[in-house]
TrEMBL record, chains A, B:
Protein name according to UniProt: MerR family transcriptional regulator
HTH merR-type domain boundaries: 6-73
Keywords carried by this UniProt record: Coiled coil, DNA-binding, Transcription, Transcription regulation
Stretches assigned to coiled coil: 98-125
A GO term for molecular function: DNA-binding transcription factor activity
One Pfam family, short name: MerR-DNA-bind
Superkingdom of origin: Bacteria
PANTHER family: HTH-TYPE TRANSCRIPTIONAL REGULATOR YFMP, REDOX-CYCLING DRUG-SENSING TRANSCRIPTIONAL ACTIVATOR SOXR
Transcription regulation recorded as keyword: yes
Species whose genome carries this gene: Brumicola pallidula DSM 14239 = ACAM 615
Length: 132, 132
DNA sequence: ACTCAGCTTTACGTTAACGTAAAGCTTAAG
DNA sequence: CTTAAGCTTTACGTTAACGTAAAGCTGAGT
């Protein structure tokens, strides 16, 4: 028997280094639907995975609303052609955004390289000056 | 003589598809310091470049405050060793963030691939059903 | 002289994503 | 029994990044 892992809200918040308030907020926004035992929330593996996805999405600049629509689409029984087409359209759009970000990151990296190189040059210059 | 390109605020806003309000706001936050001719703002190439950088930073989830500190550092005469060290530390930190984002993007791309594949499978399934 | 487009400042409004405080339940430890 | 830790709900506060009027200046065209 594989015992399924369970988490309290405090455990989850420590795991992901966020506040319990945030987790409750995500639930309020219907991004999480934890089980209840008495008054307390109980999170299972799937909730943990969801939370991970939420945070990843946030790091990429997605709003909670956007993340929710993706979740909803993912959860939906995609049984009609129009729904599937919609889903494909959205994933394509997200893909475009991600590609744009990839581009942006590459550009920024190059600029960081440049800044770094200049800094190091200046540092060695200063060193030389001190040694004379 | 290379005539330097000039832009009004309206031209810039159309160029980058943002509102003039945003551009003025960036100035208010000291991210831009356009020249003035009478009451009107005039933007040169360097301002345009700055704006491009601002928007790129935003797409990567940087706050205007963060972007400003980067600009400030870039503009500063980095003439003391401590300043240079600070700059290097910051660029390293930004680099870490960007690497994290790269990772996130790759993960998300893979999941998008998965979702897409499933959608297309379902679509062909529906097609088959219709053709019988 | 008048209008109109485009610019200006000033100022209040708005939204997202929480922070923070207050007040109360609940369960294990002393 | 009573702390204490950890959970709960309710509710008001906060910050960033603008949106959206309102009211006025200004140069080109008719």
């Amino acid at each position: 028997m594989t015992q399924e892992q369970q988490y309290s809200i405090g455990e989850l918040s420590r795991l992901f280094d966020i506040t319990a308030r945030s987790i409750r907020f995500y639930e309020e926004q219907e991004l999480l639907v934890p089980e209840r035992q008495g008054q307390s929330r109980i999170y299972h593996l799937k909730d943990k995975v969801r939370l991970k996805l939420i945070l990843r999405g946030k790091r990429l600049g997605f709003s909670l609303a956007e993340i929710k629509t993706l979740f909803d689409l993912y959860d939906t029984n995609l049984n009609s052609a129009p729904q599937l087409e919609t889903m494909l359209a959205i994933t394509e759009q997200k893909r475009a955004v991600l590609n744009q970000q990839l581009n942006d990151i590459q550009m920024l990296m190059i600029e960081l390289d440049d800044v770094e190189a200049r800094c190091k040059d200046e540092l060695t210059e200063l060193q030389r000056g001190n040694n004379l």
